[in-house]
Structures
1.
Amino acid sequence: MRIATWNVNSLKARWPRVEAWLGQVAPDVLCVQETKLADDAFPALSVAAAGYEGVHHGQGRWNGVAVLSRVGVDDVRHGFAGPPPQGASASEARLLTVRCDGVVVVTVYAPNGRAVGHEQYYEKLAWLKALVDHLDAVATPGDEVVVCGDFNVAPDDRDVWDPAACHGGTHVSPAEREAYQRIVDWGLVDVLRARFDDAGIYSWWDYRAGAFHRHLGMRIDLVLASTPLASRLEWVLVDRNARKGQAPSDHAPVMAGFAPRSPAP
DNA sequence: ATGGTCGTCCAACGA
């Protein structure tokens, strides 16, 4: 089973790239962030023609998350199942939970936070905290769960191009990293870090200043698997090719492969 | 030379 996550930065603008990528890579499940679509603008027919069942949670213009699956989708829940976070982000389309082939799939688009100390920064911390309550409401750590998406947090200094240059900004502050750690502590494994301990593996690069070609990025798009699912992990990668060429998103997809479940004894 | 780009939709603003 191949599970991928991709912040596409507008599904309308990116659909040609997403459609081609689905055709070439054929993930079983793709979690999408920043569709920037209202639900009635989601390209359901095109998604179906590509062989996927799509579920979308959007509001138009900003945010918007989706799950595309070719192994079925049920138990759809839009937004928070537990207490929502304080602040405006509670009503934003940033969270969608479904079940695909027995795996609870949670797609997340965490608030950016704007600047350390800004009101939106504290809302981001509250949002990440509310995500833990959401996980408690929809699953237990003994279930097969994957929480993936754009967390807008670089978990440690290996995940940014220059820790000194990033110091004082969002995505790397101790409070954000602690809020992220509480999500992991629910019972999840960062599957990329389970396979690689290298610095310099990124999933996002600023459009400006040739950042991609200069290898100036951050790893903020993460696949977090519960222990029962992580035990089946075979491989994980960042598809940097999807960041190249004409009209790319500023994020690359991250994808993990899981072995089939062992047959019952 | 101290910025540099996208997306939303036409004016800034958010990332």
2.
Amino acid sequence: MELAKAYDPKAAEEDHYKRWEESGFFTPEINQDPAAEPFSIVIPPPNVTGSLHMGHALQHTIMDALTRWKRMQGFRTLWLPGTDHAGISVQRKVVEQLKKEEHKSPLDIGREEFVRRAWKWKELYGNTITEQMRREGASVDWTRQRFTMDDSLSLAVRNVFCTLYEEGQIYRGLRIVNWCPKDKTVLSDLEVKEETKKDGKLTYLKYPVKGTDKTITVATTRPETMLGDTAVAVNGNDERYKDLVGETVLLPLTTREIPIIADEYVDAEFGTGAVKITPAHDPNDYLVGQRHELQQILVMNMDGTMNAEAGPEFDGLDRFVAREKVVEEFEKLGLLEKVDDYEITLPVCERCKTIVEPILSEQWFVKMDEMRDLALELMRSGGVPHFSPQVPHEKVYTAWLENLKDWTISRQLWWGHQIPAWYDEDGNIFVARSEEEAIAKSGGKSLTQDSDVLDTWFSSGLWAFSTFGWTGDKGEKQLIAYSSQLTDGIQTDLETFLPTDVLVTGRDIIFLWVSRMVMLTKKFTGQNAFEDVVITGTVLGKDGKPMSKSRNNGVDPIEMFDKFGVDATRIYLASIATGADIRWNDVGVETYRNFANKIWNATRFCLMNSDGGRVSEFALAIITPDPKRQAYMKEEQTRRQSQTPERDWYEIYSEIAIEERANVYSLAERWIISRLNRTAIGVHRALETYQFHEAVQLLYHFFWDDFCDWYIELVKDDITAEQASRERDISRTRILSVLEESLRLLHPFMPFLTEELWQKLPGTGSYLHNSAYEDAEKTIMLTQFPTGSTGLVDKAAEVEMGAVIDLIKKVRNIRAEMNISTSIKFAVYIAASSAMQQVFAANEPQILKLAKAESLVIGDTLDVPKASAKAVTNDASLAIPLEGLIDFEKERERLSNQIAKLTEEKTRLDGQLSNASFVERAPVEKVQELRDRQIELENQIGTLRNNLNSLE
RNA sequence: GCCGUCUUAGCUCAGUGGUAGAGCACUCGCUUCACACGCGAUAGGCCACAAGUUCGAAUCUUGUAGACGGCACCA
């Protein structure tokens, strides 16, 4: 079989996903093992208005790698997908559409029609992300896809709301809230962002004191709110104003007389020391107002214009127009003291950037005390959830919880979960799970439902359990059941998959979403939502700033997929240190595109030389320790009773003691098995601790350096021998088996490429699957993930191979430095210990080939002419006679450089070892290690000096 | 104001209380029968700065500077 010369990702990406999905590989039902441990992840549901960005691609890559890795280990694995209804975003889209296409406002068509259109919009445009996720190769279970407004999830929302209300944890109250005049809805504290305005103004207004000719000056950044002032406050200890407390101010532009009061809230040091109090438009003033029983006068409408309370002059004016007018009027009255430039940070709406107006409004709130304590207790007693990276997120999360305030959950929108509260004509509230129930509660009155909907995060806060069928109905039969013919009963998804194992998300929604899931899940199911939370970093634009439309520095994942392939993009994203921000650069992806091509071509080479060889389960058994599989294969072996090449490999390798293997196996084979196992162990360990970048580094260097640069080159002659032979078949079987194992290790990161190649390898089949998936159609994604075995890490082989590699590198170095053409062959003289002499002799053909040498002369000493280039390694000294080719000047320089380098190291060592306190206090092994190295260096330097002298 | 993170090779980034690493770029070779998206060989760092702890610090502590993030306040 011959592959194309270069890897074309598109071809591989087209077919496999469809087959995986249609074959049910993504569903937990594929697992036939009744005793399988569950592993579950719920996706952070993207907004239906969203399209895939790099942050998603990063998070999805990590979730998919974890999911595939666990699935390959035989876990009953579920990665649950879905989307969020995204209240404000969808509402805004539909309003825009309505305006553009029909020149209508929501009020023109009414609530029912509006909601109908929002659903239509969602059906039409809400699947962008889910389609893009298929392109990513995400192994999510589409049969369990959820939407936050699905019937069962909505039922869960109503039940949670009612329960909290009945417990007194949800209440309706009049508070100063964050109001967005553009969206005309209240916002929670978390949806308000700060924006610094350098051109702000601080306006000083003089208020006349009644019955005197005095004035009292207050400073404000929002002059228009003075129309709602109901007091002026000073600090009671402020000598300047002591005698004014209790006096009355004639509030300009109005007919009101308001008191001067003393309150400790006022900082005498700040501004004029006197503060205008507007209880209906400022949270602090609101509190002052409560303490002094002040009137609350709302002077603004919900769209940011002034209302009748502001007076006929101002009624209907926009808040900013009114602001200017107030200042003008004060100027006219001679009551404007001054206007200072003032840098101010303003609260703005997270989504539309409109300046948020603090305003008095009646809203629904959740008391967070009880749930906060639940979450804090989880963290304190069990460290749950465990954040990766732990620093700084655990501390920030905990500190936030400790200062948690009540949560504003009502939103003045139509798209979302309408609040299950009804009112009678007298304003009595009836909270119920349905209108019928509410009417019943009211004794049959005619009721009107609260027109507000719930904060989107209220429903997504239930995501960790509502997606598994929890509705909160008492004694209900759970809606979604996982049925297994292998268990005695029926276990619900909720029982099987909650708590989920890990949540992967960005740090921006730790408070908004993560914390609320922790609290609500514990409260309503008694379970933890998840054990671990992996917080990914932010993918920044090429300019080092967060990607955004306004900066136009975004990088579209789909474009990267098209340009470099999905797998290359995925493994690049996985190569970023967990939690670290990364500045995007295409070169990084290109590196992994090249890596993908390298894998392709290594496989291409193996396939070009695969006749007589095949992937062997027996070869693999020794590098994938799975007792169940090994037992199965023993049986299989007996059953087959056939003489296959892999038989030798398995029987001999697994049954021979490690120190005996050298007698039977080539160094290259012992070495690559050792490296493969070391890599598998490292990758497995890295994934267990969410160190994805470490796993990627290990795989990259194992595959490229160890497998391609050394193993393939070392065994190339055996593999490509023209004559068919039993030895050639065995060699081919071995390299195919190592390759197959490598593809499995790579699969969680590069699913398409590995499946494409694995399917082409001779001898692959469903018998290689993890025993939980024996019956499934053949696919790499259900094979056993290699976890490696320490028993197969062969230190002797690594030391010996290291000596061979060093030797070859020195010879290559001499050739390069001496500018000797590869067409010129030469003899290499080697002096080494007798043990190493054996190693070099045993690998002579490989050394000759890779060093492009003609012959080796191995002995105890070097016996070479003066015109030779020389070098030393840790294990040998070598010389290459180069009569007529050697440039003595260059050779002297080369030797001197090496001596200088080694001497520098030795000087450092000498210093350290002559330090008495080091020798005394450092661990013995460390001291010994340095002493050994010191002797080694002494020898090498001595040899090089002699070499240099012999050139003089 | 409070809390926190980062500062390592030209660039983008890993990393560990015990001789500094990768990819890319650079330099020098190579039409070597899988791969030029390649192969081979070099070069390149007082690990921001200062002090401390330690036998030993790039790694731990404190401080300084710069970059960034979160929270709070803002009359």
3.
Amino acid sequence: MAKNRQIIIYGVALAFLIFLLKWLEMRFIIIDNQLELYAGLIAVIFTALGIWLALKLRKPKIHTVIVEKEVFASPNGDFTINQDELRKLNLSKRELEVLQLMAEGLSNQEIAEKLFVSLNTIKTHSAQIFEKMEVKRRTQAVEMAKRLSLIP
Amino acid sequence: MAKNRQIIIYGVALAFLIFLLKWLEMRFIIIDNQLELYAGLIAVIFTALGIWLALKLRKPKIHTVIVEKEVFASPNGDFTINQDELRKLNLSKRELEVLQLMAEGLSNQEIAEKLFVSLNTIKTHSAQIFEKMEVKRRTQAVEMAKRLSLIP
DNA sequence: GATAAAATCACCCTAAAGTATGACTGTAAA
DNA sequence: TTTACAGTCATACTTTAGGGTGATTTTATC
């Protein structure tokens, strides 16, 4: 089959390599090499057998059936910020504000414009946020904030 | 680099096998009356090699079946993915996978390592995701995904 | 077997994010 | 009034994200 091209190519390459090896040995070492040829042949044959076995015994494709008919409960509209966690993290008011805007997917530039401050200020705030929350990226900060109910 | 990984693996494997073969030959010279054992060993090793190769190259991808049965007003606790929205966005399985890892706050590099593919592949996927979701940034994609219940 | 979609990867380049450091100001607490 | 801190901003630098393009290979489907 054409779709197993890679396997066939590798198999042929392996066979070729082994035969090349044997040929080289025959060229320079004048000994009884029948045995080595025999071994090489076995190797090639059983490699092929292994490939064949694996392909043959492979599990058939799983048919995916997606059943629908779902009824969703409307998410509770009441959100209360977790003051405990907020205090633990020791985030300032401004930092929480920046964090919320981050969670809305705004860029630092957009946050800066929204809060009427400079981009550098937002960078400083975000760096502070990441340090306090012990995360490395804004996405992690947002994930954590949602998990801790610091943000809806 | 990811592009050289397979080549390195094959090279090392091949080198190891040849070395093993030589070692077996040396052993055989000493114990020269066990031809069957020698041949058998080679057969087993190379059958295993063949199976390993086939499995490695064929990448037996398991379809992640998401069967969804009539859920009545699921309360807070378990999460059911919104198949309708998912179909509307036309996100592929892989793209959804990447999106989920994004939502966990992983960087593209980390996602690449987790999924055993290259960074460029993840970039391509994420670009596709942003285009399909009509967003500009990963944070927006995550926000939207959570809002649409594509992600817990 | 042809075809389409999905997945993979590369290269180049720009934009955005993040790090590190230092500095200035206003306010509130000690 | 000194101290501490929040908030502001800057400059320089590194890293990560994202855009655009093109290509190959798998996989599914007709």
